[in-house]
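Hi support team,

I've been running sequence recovery on a batch of backbones for a student project. Most finish fine, but this one hangs at about 90% for roughly twenty minutes before it completes. I'm not sure whether the input is malformed or the queue is just slow. I've pasted the structure tokens below so you can try to reproduce it. Let me know if you need the job ID as well.

Thanks,
M.K.
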């Protein structure tokens, strides 16, 4: 039985990579200093995995920015515009692809970035041309093999990892429409064969090719490309002294098993994800039984922070041993550990019973050794594990009877507003008497260095509550005054008290904890620290009312209350694993509902519940969408349905793909939805229009992600186009997301142009 790992976090135990790359980008260290930090992180990661007893050590899982970009770089898939400036070294070229590049002469934007499957990690999207060439353009993978060889003094245990050819093509996009990216399968396959031949020459015995798309719904073309590519690869390597481990993760493999059937007797080793799909094991075993294929079991959860339940894993391990024998078994986490924080030992203030059930990347590697020891007979490890895991599962730290009984479910009346939208709309129009094309913003206003330091000081108790609140109130008064000056119709308080829209609420809710060092890479040097939902969730006190009411007290205009929705809180956290996800979602939803009602009682008449994570939570396979939509829509409706008819519920989502989810979006029944639209050329609104979306919509009229100031004319044009597609009475005017990353100067100018465009629209476009 081999123990191995698909990949280890590369940000460094103290986020060394983040710090070093940011220093490098601001010219405070040179590239050799940066490389040295990279080398140290790799050594630290490898040494740790070696000491923990892994039988194969993965390399090439390190990256200075993104492993997909690394592969593009390795294969020379570099759009021409990045080759035009003559960079002094390859790393500057590499970073220019990731982050764009500006100097006196050049102004090149960054490559597109998007989500890595349904995780919170983002990769740089490869861009292909019709005559794309693939050639070895970087020796990173070879030098990492060298480095590891020097530590191990042998190449037998080295296993470099690469994304496989089909997944790589799948992740990329064509530069123009004259070809399909899968047309490149032939060329890329030959490139991989060539590369693998060169890798074999270094003496290594293992290569890991990641093909997570095998757990998606694939088109015929993708399936065909897959068969083609791997038949070719295995034809060359099935008799050589190299083992190619084909990995699948983020789901089960069974829907695509037919692709593998033809080549199964030539596949050296295959990895399956038993965390996402435990039910696939029997069928996989029966498929490979007669072959010599090695089976790698992904049994430790690489996407969540809970301890492995050894009794379950041992059952599966024994099943495999009985079926194909110990020699053909590998064990590992289900996917790369990129998605969990590195070291739990650094957390000193988590309640011991909770901490005893937790496990970060380092601990997860150790769990593999534990499993091996149990198989060899050390039963005490198994008993201790069951004791610790059960102890928390049964502890009253996580259980709250009242919440369980009253707030883990709902009745029909709890998810229905009192009247239908058309009745509510009339009542709301009467109450608010807003002009045509009402203007508003999405919630946050610029967050400055000073503000961040203010919040930090308060958090560290260097600043009294009194002083802190005074400062925040000053900012609120300021932003209210500014919004009045800018002529906005519905105002916000600015979210100055929040560093993060999820953390702010999770810090205040019972049953959720924040870590001190639990950083996970989101993209490049950007890391996030997801909260941990460990127990029944409830709300003790008001979380936002005093701020919102203070803002309302400063103006006669309406101030919008601002909350994060249950689906987003859940999706951006690590979630407990001892109950079905919908129960956790409903508990959070009830807590948010309480807050909504408290705001309403305090006189707030418009309340926004943000759900930017709703779409990204969609399961990878379509067959699982129904289940997801069922609980997520219910959760949103629990949170939003308790209010009176004339209280207006807004929601906000910041993406522009609604084609396949428009029906579900309308089922949320929010009175107003604000969405991203400015970058999608109105395509998005056509979807709402074709669907005859009944409620009010604020299609973002400019892109807040760029410092550029939109002109009044271009905004007017967008409003005009929207008016052709949607009922005029239903249109709101707003930016496409919160303004927290912008500078004040930019915000003033942009919003001024926006409100003036709305004014013009009222004159020119009224019906
Ligand atoms: N209300 C939040 C803000 O304005 C919404 C952020 C988001 O959509 N991600 O910052
Ligand atoms: Zn947004």
């Amino acid at each position: 039985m081999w123990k191995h790992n698909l990949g280890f976090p590369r940000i460094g135990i103290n986020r060394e990579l983040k710090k070093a790359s940011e220093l490098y980008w601001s010219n405070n260290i040179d590239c050799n200093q940066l490389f040295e930090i990279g080398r140290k992180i790799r050594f630290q990661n490898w040494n740790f995995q070696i000491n923990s007893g892994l039988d194969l050590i993965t390399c090439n899982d390190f990256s200075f920015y993104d492993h997909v970009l690394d592969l593009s770089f390795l294969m020379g898939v570099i759009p021409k515009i990045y080759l035009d400036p003559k960079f002094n070294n390859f790393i500057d070229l590499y970073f220019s692809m990731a982050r764009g590049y500006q100097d006196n002469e050049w102004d090149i934007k960054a490559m597109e970035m998007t989500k890595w499957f349904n995780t919170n990690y983002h990769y740089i999207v490869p861009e292909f041309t019709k005559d794309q060439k693939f050639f070895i353009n970087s020796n990173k993978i070879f030098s990492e093999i060298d480095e590891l060889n020097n530590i191990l003094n042998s190449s037998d245990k080295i296993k470099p990892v690469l994304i496989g050819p089909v997944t790589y093509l799948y992740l990329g996009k064509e530069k123009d429409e004259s070809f399909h990216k899968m047309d490149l399968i032939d060329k890329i396959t030959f490139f991989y064969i060539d590369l693998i031949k060169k890798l074999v020459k270094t003496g290594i015995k293992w290569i890991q090719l990641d093909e997570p798309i095998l757990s998606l719904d694939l088109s015929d073309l993708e399936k065909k490309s897959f068969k083609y590519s791997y038949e070719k690869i295995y034809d060359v390597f099935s008799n050589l002294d190299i083992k190619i481990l084909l990995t699948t993760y983020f789901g089960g493999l069974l829907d695509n098993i037919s692709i593998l059937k033809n080549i199964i007797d030539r596949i050296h080793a295959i990895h399956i994800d038993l965390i996402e799909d435990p039910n696939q094991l029997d069928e996989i075993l029966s498929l490979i039984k007669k072959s010599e294929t090695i089976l790698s079991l992904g049994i430790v959860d690489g996407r969540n922070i809970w301890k492995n339940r050894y009794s379950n894993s041992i059952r599966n391990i024994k099943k495999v041993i009985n079926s194909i024998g110990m020699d053909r078994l590998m064990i590992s986490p289900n996917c790369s550990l990129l998605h969990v924080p590195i070291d739990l030992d650094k957390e000193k203030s988590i309640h011991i019973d909770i901490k005893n059930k937790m496990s970060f990347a380092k601990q997860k590697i150790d769990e593999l050794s534990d499993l091996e020891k149990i198989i060899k007979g050390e039963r005490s490890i198994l008993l201790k594990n069951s004791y610790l895991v059960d102890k928390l599962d049964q502890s009253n730290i996580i259980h709250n009877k009242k919440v369980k009984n009253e707030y883990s479910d709902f009745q029909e009346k709890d998810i229905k507003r009192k009247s239908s939208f058309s009745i509510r709309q009339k009542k709301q129009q009467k109450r608010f008497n807003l002009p045509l094309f009402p203007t508003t913003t999405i919630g946050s206003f610029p967050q400055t260095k000073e503000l961040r330091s203010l919040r930090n000081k308060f958090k560290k108790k260097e600043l009294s509550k009194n002083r802190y609140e005074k400062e925040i109130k000053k900012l609120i008064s300021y932003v209210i005054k500014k919004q009045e000056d800018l002529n906005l119709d519905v105002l916000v308080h600015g979210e100055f008290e929040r560093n993060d829209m999820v953390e702010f609420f999770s810090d205040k809710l019972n049953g959720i904890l924040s870590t001190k060092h639990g950083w996970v890479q989101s993209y490049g040097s950007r890391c996030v620290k997801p909260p941990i939902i460990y127990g029944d969730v409830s709300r003790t006190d008001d979380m936002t009312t005093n701020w919102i009411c203070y803002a309302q007290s400063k103006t006669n205009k309406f101030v919008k209350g601002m909350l994060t929705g249950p689906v987003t809180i859940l999706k951006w956290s690590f979630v407990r694993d001892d109950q079905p996800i919908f129960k956790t979602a409903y508990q959070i939803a009830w807590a948010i509902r309480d807050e909504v009602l408290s705001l309403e009682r305090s006189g707030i008449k418009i309340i926004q519940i943000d759900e930017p994570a709703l779409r990204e939570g969609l399961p990878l396979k379509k067959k699982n969408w129904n289940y997801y939509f069922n609980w997520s829509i219910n959760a949103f409706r629990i949170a939003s349905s308790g209010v009176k008819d004339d209280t207006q519920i807004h929601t906000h989502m910041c993406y522009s793909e609604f084609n396949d989810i428009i029906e579900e979006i309308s089922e949320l029944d929010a009175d107003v939805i604000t969405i991203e639209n400015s970058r999608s050329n109105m395509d998005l609104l056509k979807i709402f229009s074709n669907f005859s979306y009944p409620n009010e919509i604020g299609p973002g009229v400019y892109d807040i992600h760029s410092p550029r100031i939109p002109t009044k004319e271009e905004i007017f044009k967008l409003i005009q186009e929207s008016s052709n597609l949607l009922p005029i009475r239903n249109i709101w005017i707003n930016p496409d997301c919160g303004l927290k990353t912008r500078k004040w100067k930019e915000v003033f100018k942009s919003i001024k142009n926006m409100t003036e465009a709305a004014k013009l629209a009222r004159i020119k476009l009224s019906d």
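--
Follow-up from support: It reproduced on our side and the slowdown came from queue contention, not your input. Residues 744-765 form the longest helix (22 residues). No action needed from you.
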